[in-house]
Write a structure and sequence with these properties.
Length: 674
C-alpha cells in the first residue's frame, strides 16, 4: 500500500506536469547545468541572463503555491541589503547563512511551474551568495516534484575547493594563467608518520564526501513538513547512515592494521590533530588543530559542561525507556520505533519532541569540534572542516565523534529484548548454500575530475581542460550465488539481507558474535519471489541497493544534454537520479594482502511481512534511503543484527540464515590512466 503522502505527491506532480508540459527532461537538465556552471562567475546561458536582468519575482503571484509569500520575504531582505555578500564563505551551521539559503529554497519549492523556478534561480544567482545559492538549488532539485528526473552535477566539480587540496588548486590557477591543458596529481593529506594517513583514502574520497552531503540534503535537520511532506523514519535513517560510515571506517582501519576508532569524550583531550590542506574559495585556509587539544567552551555556541549535561539527559531517557515531550508527557522508546525518536533527539532535527531539554548533541558537537582552533573568535578564523558536510569526514575527529554517538544508539538498542527463534524463523525456507563468483579483491584506480570551476575566468578566453586525478578504492566485480529451498508448497516473497563484518580485530583477536554483529556492514538488500522447491539466486555486486554509481562528469552531463536538445533524442540518465548511497566502488572494505577474514551473513526473511509497499520484487530502483513517501522495508535498519545477541546459537538454528567466512584481498594494485 502506498502512503497517502506518496499519493499526494504524485497527484501534485500530475497537476504540475499538466501545467508545464513545456519543459522536457533535457531542457530541465540544461537549465540546472547552466545554473550551476561556473557558479562564482556571471551566468553563461543567454536565456538565463535575460531572466536575471528583467524578471520581477513579485510581478505575478499566481505562479506560486503560497501566493508569493516566500518570494516577498526574500525580495524584502534583498532590498534591505540584509543578505550575505557574494565572494564570502558559506556554512550551513551558521544560523543566518542557513536561514538565507532556506529562504531561496522556500521560494523554489513554491514555484508551480518550471519556468518560474528557473527565472527565480537565475535572478537570485546574480544577487545572492554563491554558497547559499548552490545549497538551495541542490536541496530544491532533490525535493521538488518538477525536478524528479534531473541529475545534479557532481558537487566536487561545482565547488572543487571543498574537495581538493590547496596545492592542487594553486597549480590549477597557474595552468589557467598559462592557458595550457593540464592534469594534476592529487594525493591524500598527511605523511607516513601519521598513522591516520593510511585510511585517508576513505574519509577524503570525493564520492564518500558527496554521499554524506547528499544524505544530509535528503534528510535535512532543518526540514519542516510544510515544505512538502513528512520524511519517513528520518531519525532512524540518521542513526543508520552514520552507523554504517563508522563501522565501514573501522573495517578499513583493521584492513590497514590499525585499531578501531576510540570514541570522543568531552572531558578528555582530542588525541588526533588534523591539518586539512584545503582552503575556502573565499576566506582563506581551513583551520588546523594540533594533537591532544582539550575541549574548550566555544563562545556563542556551547560550554563543554552543557554537552555533558545533554549527554546524561539522553542516557537517562534510554535507561528509563522513554523520552519526555515538551508538554511533560512520555514517548515510549522500548520498541522498533524508539530508534527513530532517539535519532531525531540526538541530531537534533526539527522533528525532536523536546529540543529545549535534550538539546542538539550532534549538530552542536560538529560546531564545537570545528571551532577548537579558535574557540573565542580571537583570530576571526573561518569555520573548520567539521562545519561542512562536504569536508567533515576528512577529519579523523569526525569518526571519533560518530563512534561516540553510535555507542549511545547501541546503549538503546541493547536495552531492547533480544530476538527469539520465532521472531527470526521463516518457516519452510532454508538457505542451503552461498557461494561467491569471482574473488573478493580490491585495488586503487586513478579517478579524474575537472577543476574548471575552481579557477576564475572571463567569457572572452576559451576554457582549457584542467583536471586532477586521485587514487580511489574500487573492487573487482563479483556475484553472490544463493541457493534457497522453499518447502512452503507455494510461491513466497522473500527479503534477502546480506551483511559482512570483520572476523577479528587488528591484533587477530576474534570478535564475539555480539560485538561482530554491531560492526556489520550492510552489503545489499533486495526482494525476490521464491518458487516452490529449489531456487538459485544470482545477484551482481553492481546491483547493490546500498550503493550508487559515480555521476558522469559535469562536462559529460552537458554534452549529453545538449545532444538530446539539438537531436530531440531522449536523455537517459536514470541511473544517476539518486546520489544517496555509498559509491559502489566502496562496497567492499579494502582487505589486505593475506586476505582479511570476514563473516558473511545472508538472511532470508518473510517478504510479505517486511514489505511496506507492494511489488518490491519487480522494483530495481529500491534506493536505500528512499525519501518519496515511505521507506520500503518495515524492519528496523540493520535487522536482524540490530539487537543484542544473548545466545548466537539461535542464528545457527534458524534455517533461513546462512553464516560463512570469506576473505577480501588487496594486492597493492593501482591502475593508472595516464
Amino acid at each position: 500500500m502506498k502512503s497517502t503522502l506518496l499519493l499526494l505527491a504524485v497527484a501534485g506532480a500530475a497537476l504540475l506536469s499538466v501545467a508545464s508540459a513545456d519543459a522536457s527532461n533535457a531542457q530541465k537538465q540544461h537549465d540546472v547545468n547552466f545554473l550551476l556552471w561556473k557558479v562564482n562567475e556571471h551566468l553563461r546561458d543567454e536565456t538565463h541572463k535575460g531572466y536575471a536582468k528583467t524578471f520581477d519575482p513579485e510581478a505575478d503571484k499566481s505562479h506560486y503555491s503560497d501566493n508569493g509569500e516566500a518570494v516577498h520575504r526574500l525580495v524584502k531582505e534583498l532590498k534591505d541589503n540584509r543578505l550575505l555578500e557574494q565572494k564570502h564563505w558559506f556554512s550551513l551551521f551558521n544560523d543566518r547563512h542557513r536561514e538565507e539559503a532556506l529562504m531561496l529554497f522556500d521560494v523554489l519549492m513554491h514555484c508551480k511551474d518550471w519556468e518560474t523556478a528557473v527565472k527565480n534561480a537565475a535572478y537570485f544567482r546574480e544577487r545572492m551568495n554563491e554558497g547559499e545559492f548552490v545549497y538551495a538549488i541542490y536541496a530544491a532539485v532533490i525535493h521538488h516534484p518538477l525536478a524528479e528526473h534531473v541529475v545534479l552535477p557532481p558537487l566536487y566539480e561545482v565547488t572543487p575547493h571543498m574537495f581538493t587540496n590547496t596545492e592542487v588548486i594553486q597549480e590549477a590557477y597557474a595552468a589557467k594563467m598559462r592557458q595550457t591543458p593540464t592534469k594534476i596529481k592529487s594525493s591524500f593529506t598527511g605523511t607516513a608518520r601519521n598513522k591516520e594517513q593510511r585510511v585517508a583514502y576513505f574519509g577524503e574520497d570525493i564520492g564518500m564526501n558527496t554521499h554524506h552531503v547528499f544524505w544530509h540534503l535528503e534528510f535535512p535537520f532543518w526540514w519542516k513538513d510544510s515544505y512538502s511532506h513528512k520524511l519517513d523514519r528520518k531519525g532512524e535513517n540518521f542513526y543508520w547512515v552514520h552507523n554504517q560510515l563508522t563501522v565501514r571506517f573501522d573495517a578499513e582501519r583493521i584492513s590497514n592494521f590499525l585499531d578501531p576508532v576510540e570514541e570522543l569524550q568531552w572531558d578528555k583531550p582530542i588525541h588526533d590533530g588534523f591539518a586539512p590542506h584545503t582552503s575556502y574559495k573565499y576566506g582563506g585556509a581551513f583551520p588546523s588543530r594540533p594533537d591532544d587539544t582539550d575541549f574548550e567552551d566555544v563562545d556563542g555556541v556551547a560550554r563543554v559542561r552543557d554537552m555533558i549535561i545533554i549527554d546524561s539527559r539522553i542516557r537517562d531517557a534510554i535507561a528509563h525507556g522513554y523520552i519526555i515531550k515538551e508538554d511533560g508527557s512520555h514517548i515510549d522508546i522500548m520498541n522498533d520505533h524508539g530508534i527513530d525518536v532517539l535519532g531525531d533527539v540526538i541530531e537534533s532535527s526539527l522533528y525532536s519532541p523536546n529540543a529545549q531539554y535534550y538539546g542538539a548533541l550532534h549538530n552542536t558537537a560538529h560546531i564545537m569540534l570545528g571551532r577548537q582552533t579558535d574557540p573565542h573568535g580571537k583570530y576571526n578564523m573561518p569555520p573548520g572542516v567539521m562545519e561542512h558536510f562536504e569536508t567533515a569526514t576528512r577529519d579523523p575527529g569526525f569518526f571519533r565523534l560518530h563512534k561516540y554517538m553510535d555507542n549511545i544508539f547501541r546503549e538503546h538498542k541493547d536495552s531492547l529484548p533480544s530476538y527469539t527463534f520465532d521472531d527470526l524463523d521463516f518457516k519452510g525456507v532454508s538457505v542451503t548454500n552461498v557461494a561467491i563468483d569471482g574473488t573478493l579483491e580490491t585495488y586503487f584506480e586513478d579517478f579524474e575530475y575537472s577543476l574548471l570551476n575552481a579557477v576564475d575566468d572571463t567569457e572572452e578566453i576559451a576554457d582549457v581542460d584542467i583536471d586532477t586525478y586521485v587514487p580511489r578504492l574500487d573492487h573487482k566485480e563479483f556475484s553472490y550465488n544463493i541457493d534457497i529451498k522453499n518447502e512452503k508448497g507455494s510461491e513466497a516473497l522473500a527479503t534477502i539481507r546480506i551483511f559482512a563484518w570483520p572476523d577479528a580485530d587488528n591484533n587477530g583477536v576474534k570478535f564475539s558474535f555480539d560485538d561482530g554483529r554491531w560492526g556489520a556492514v550492510e552489503l545489499d538488500k533486495f526482494w525476490v519471489k521464491l518458487s516452490p522447491g529449489t531456487n538459485t539466486i544470482v545477484r551482481k555486486s553492481t546491483d547493490s541497493s546500498v550503493t550508487v554509481h559515480d555521476v558522469p562528469s559535469f562536462k559529460t552531463l552537458m554534452e549529453k544534454t545538449e545532444a538530446a536538445l539539438s537531436g530531440g533524442g531522449d536523455l537517459d540518465l536514470h541511473d544517476y537520479e539518486s546520489a544517496t548511497g555509498l559509491p559502489n566502488r566502496f562496497l567492499l572494505p579494502k582487505g589486505n594482502h593475506n586476505g582479511m577474514d570476514f563473516d558473511l551473513l545472508v538472511c532470508v526473511t518473510d517478504g510479505a511481512a517486511d514489505a511496506a509497499i507492494a511489488d518490491l520484487h519487480t522494483n530495481d530502483d529500491f534506493i536505500h534511503y528512499g525519501t518519496n513517501g515511505v521507506y520500503p522495508d518495515k524492519r528496523p535498519h540493520g535487522y536482524p543484527f540490530d539487537r543484542h545477541v544473548e545466545d548466537e546459537r539461535i542464528f545457527e538454528q534458524v534455517t533461513n540464515f546462512h553464516h560463512s567466512h570469506v576473505k577480501i584481498y588487496h594486492h597493492g594494485e593501482h591502475i593508472h590512466h595516464h
